[in-house]
Amino acid sequence: MNQRAMYSGHKRIHCIKYQTLEVPNGLILHCSIGDDGRRGDGFVLHKSGLIPFLRQHSIVFGLYRILGDSAYPNNDVMLSVFKGNPARLPPHASAFNNIVCPLRTSVEWGYEKIIKYWAFLDFKKQMKIGRSGIIAMWHMAVFLTNVVTCAKGGNQISTYFNLAPPSLENYVIRVIS
């Protein structure tokens, strides 16, 4: 395995990058296949197929847009925060960022849940890229994290947005059908 391909200069670690979509009820609705750590967020987003997924499911999302990272484009299904030095942004841009940036924090809560429940997936704890089925294990961990969220009746994200996840039975039926 090419070590350079897996190295994220930004995070200064070897890793696999994922693109996920978490919804206000606390579930991870979409997870990309996984990409090498050197790839930028825009590349990972494009390869993940998330934007076409959102467009195909416009009936579900309706008039809502997904809040994305500042590296992501603004379009008919996604919007991102304004880039730049906060002190130099126009007042409307600064006000918008002040409202939506705390919402972006909820994205990190999802990754935190996965590592909390399935700590062995944290590369710092000896996962070996190329020697373990890391991508398959990550996707299973996403599924099982959603199962835990449904079984518990929610998590930090669903509490923050005051929106309960489906019952465990309904979630599993939807996943397997």
Can you characterise this structure?
The chain is α+β, with helices and mostly antiparallel strands. The protein is built from 8 helices and 8 strands. The protein has helices spanning 3-6, 41-48, 50-56, 58-61, 91-117, 134-152, 156-161, 168-176, and strands at 7-8, 13-14, 16-17, 20-22, 28-31, 35-36, 66-68, 78-80. A two-stranded antiparallel sheet has the order 1-2. It has a two-stranded antiparallel sheet with strand order 3-6. Strands 4-5 form a two-stranded antiparallel ribbon.
Short key terms for the protein model shown above:
two-stranded antiparallel ribbon, 8 helices, 177 residues
Task: Give unreliable regions as ranges.
Answer: none
Q: Characterize the main sheet.
A: 2 strands, antiparallel
Q: How many E strands?
A: 8
* Radius of gyration, CA atoms, in whole angstroms: 17 Å
Distance N terminus to C terminus? 36 Å
Residue fraction in strands: 5-15%
Overall pLDDT confidence: 80
Structural domains: how many: 1
Kindly name the structural category.
alpha+beta
Give the neighbour order of strands across the main sheet: 1-2
The secondary-structure element order is: HEEEEEEHHHEEHHHH
Based on CA inertia axes, which overall geometry fits? globular
What is the element layout, followed by pairings?
Elements: H1 3-6, E1 7-8, E2 13-14, E3 16-17, E4 20-22, E5 28-31, E6 35-36, H2 41-48, H3 50-56, H4 58-61, E7 66-68, E8 78-80, H5 91-117, H6 134-152, H7 156-161, H8 168-176
Parallel strand pairs: 7-8
Antiparallel strand pairs: 1-2, 3-6, 4-5
Give a concise summary.
The protein is built from eight helices and eight strands. It is an alpha+beta fold and 177 residues long. It is globular, with a radius of gyration of 17 Å.
